[in-house]
Automatic annotation (TrEMBL):
Protein name: F-box domain-containing protein
Sequence segments annotated as region (Disordered): 474-528
Top-rank taxon, per record: Eukaryota
Pfam entry (one): F-box-like
Composition-biased stretches (Polar residues): 481-498, 514-528
InterPro entries (UniProt xref): F-box_dom
Domain (F-box) ranges: 39-96
């Protein structure tokens, strides 16, 4: 008698076979994956790969994309998932793109990281009220382990969206980085937002805060979060804001706040202070001994007052952006020569703050001179000061800092004592028209007669230089008794001034009586008698009998003109010490040898072909 198996029993047998085969298949997959090269990577390498994938997707405005990196690193295979779930750093970066996403990250950072430090970023706009409340409550609850907080969002016209007032805030004992940026389009009308309740930021207890950066948002100078440990303080506004008319406090509070932050290394201040700053006077000088980068943007007179009450080391790199206040248009860059007296006062205050020892050095004013001039794109100039070698603040073999000055050239040239500038460096500028660039370069050559080293990095500066020397350098040298001939004092090294007569009256800074910048004004020493090094980068030479179009030939120089200049200098006993031609175009090897014979040293490289 044949046994019969019911349908249910047959299904059970089949299901059991499927389960067994599925388990075997899964085991085969695991064994197969173990032979894959990626599975042999150390856990540390796998973790770095996962971190790269996370950072690629992090902060996405689309919540679905924010989830994508999690799926890529933990939903591929078992070994990847285990490696991801065991990584403490992978879950330490929290974004509030959606409540569910943030909750997952917070839970895993708590479970995997054992309650370790987290970095929080907020990029979303104010949306649902419940989601907004959850976000701030979560941050408040986790404040004990927040190490970094980066907020960038539209405020909706109220600082409540940047930092709500109604929630209880706990201290943040390990917070080191805090950045808050308001991105409202209507800020030019509304002005900057003032975070008056800044004392409630983490209950005013952020003992380890080192980096504080606020954009379009101010806090009072008396805020308790401005602690002695801060090394970076940036209080700035966006370029499109024309009327940032809110003051964060009195001048006394401002200088007191800086005095309480002696560890500052980076300080960016873009602010309009209240009218009291224009007339503020104090005998106290606030020293910033560790400052490395200092950017100051504001009304010229207020910048002057601030600099008069500060002291920074000569190694600091400074950036000055003086502005004018117009009742109709708001704040604007300086644009008129009538602003020159105010700019000169600001520069003198800068020298006293920057090279304080230089002013008192043997009664001279060497700290008021610059030896380095660089024209950067957009018209910004970079300067390096002359620091007396007796200045004890500058250690041996340590270079002084630089000054970035954001002024139109008609103002910037007039503040410089031209005879002490011995290095001119002009960087390529694609923002200015060709004719204006060439005119400006020729103007600079006219202004700095004592140049020792010229570095030109743009083809139009090369042609402007050659036009200049053809027009002026081949003139006979001036008589020895001519007032334009270099005096022994002028020939001294700019960094080591001589003092042959200590009782002599020190030379007043030329910035007090600037030479004329009129292109038609009498020129002095245009044949570059002091020039010892000429650097031309990316220089293009004319090709004889070429069919190049006119646009291409206008930015090329003739090698014969350069040879004539070098030979003329040799004949006059002023042979060039070094000629640097880098990334040259269409310079023949025989011409290289002809140039080499006219200078003491020639450095030459050819441009790499892009074909």
């Amino acid at each position: 008698m044949e046994s019969t198996i019911s349908s249910s029993d047959q299904l059970s047998v089949i299901d059991a076979s499927i389960a067994r085969l599925t388990a075997e298949l899964e085991d085969l997959r695991v064994r197969r994956n173990s032979y894959a090269p990626v599975s042999k990577l150390p856990p540390e390498i796998m973790e770095n790969i996962f971190l790269f994938r996370r950072d690629d997707h992090y902060g996405s405005n689309n919540p679905s994309n924010a989830w994508q990196w999690i799926q890529e690193v933990s939903h591929v295979c078992r070994s990847w998932r285990l490696a991801a779930l065991q990584s403490r750093e992978l879950w330490s970066r929290v974004s509030f793109e959606s409540p569910e996403y943030a909750e997952l990250l917070l839970n895993r950072s708590e479970r995997v990281g054992g309650g370790g430090p987290i970095s929080v970023e907020i990029r979303s706009e104010p949306t649902d009220e419940e989601d907004e409340e959850y976000m701030w409550e979560a941050i408040a609850c986790e404040s004990q382990r927040v190490k970094s907080l980066d907020i960038q969002r539209n405020s909706g016209g109220s600082d409540e969206f940047v930092w709500p007032l109604g929630l209880p805030w706990n201290p943040a004992p390990i917070l080191e980085f805090l950045r808050m940026e308001v991105t409202d389009d209507d800020l030019p009308v509304a002005g900057l937002l003032m975070l008056d309740h800044s004392s409630l930021l983490f209950a005013g207890h952020t003992p380890r805060l080192r980096h504080l950066e606020l954009t379009n948002l101010l806090i009072p100078w008396s805020s308790s979060i401005l602690t002695a440990n801060i090394t970076t303080l940036k209080l700035t506004w966006s370029d499109h804001i024309s009327r940032p008319a809110i003051s964060p406090g009195t001048p006394t509070e401002f200088f007191r706040a800086l005095d309480q932050m002696p560890s500052l290394e980076t300080l960016d201040i873009f602010q309009l202070f209240n009218p009291e700053m224009n007339t503020f006077r104090s005998d106290d000088i606030v020293a910033l001994p560790k400052i490395k980068q200092f950017t100051l943007k504001g009304i010229t007179k207020q910048c002057t007052v601030i600099l008069k009450h500060l002291s920074v080391p000569p190694t600091a790199c400074l950036s000055l952006i003086p502005l004018q206040l117009d009742s109709q248009t708001g704040i604007e860059p300086l644009s008129q020569t009538s602003h020159l007296p105010g700019v000169l006062r600001m520069i003198r205050a800068l020298h006293k703050a920057w090279i304080r020892h230089g002013e008192a050095c043997r009664g001279t004013h060497w700290g008021a001179y610059f030896c380095f001039f660089r024209l950067k794109p957009g018209g910004c100039i970079q300067l390096r000061p002359i620091v007396p070698k007796c200045n004890k603040e500058l250690e041996e073999n340590t270079e002084p800092g630089t000054l970035m000055l954001h002024l139109p050239e008609e103002l910037s040239l007039q503040i410089l004592p031209s005879k002490y500038v011995h290095f001119i460096d002009i960087v390529e500028d694609t923002l200015t028209s060709k004719s204006n660039r060439a005119s400006l370069v020729r103007h600079i050559f006219n202004y700095f007669p004592k140049t020792v080293h010229i570095c030109l990095r743009d083809s139009f500066t090369h042609t402007a230089f050659m036009e200049h020397i053809k027009a002026h350098a081949f003139d006979p040298p001036a008589p020895e008794n001519d007032s334009n001939v270099n005096t022994p004092e002028a020939d001294n090294s700019p960094s080591e001034p001589s003092h042959t007569n200590d009782e002599a009256t020190p030379p007043a800074p030329e910035a007090d009586n600037p030479p004329s910048t009129d292109p038609q004004a009498p020129r002095t020493n245009n044949n570059f008698d002091n020039l010892t090094i000429l650097s031309l980068q990316g220089v293009k030479f004319k090709v004889p009998n070429s069919n190049s179009n006119s646009d291409d030939t206008t930015d090329r120089i003739d090698v014969e003109d350069l040879l004539a200049f070098l030979r003329m200098r040799s004949e006059r006993g002023k042979r060039l010490m070094q000629l640097r031609l880098s990334k040259t175009h269409d310079l023949k090897e025989e011409d290289v040898e002809r140039l080499r014979a006219c200078v003491d040293d020639l450095e030459w490289t050819q441009a790499t072909s892009t074909a």
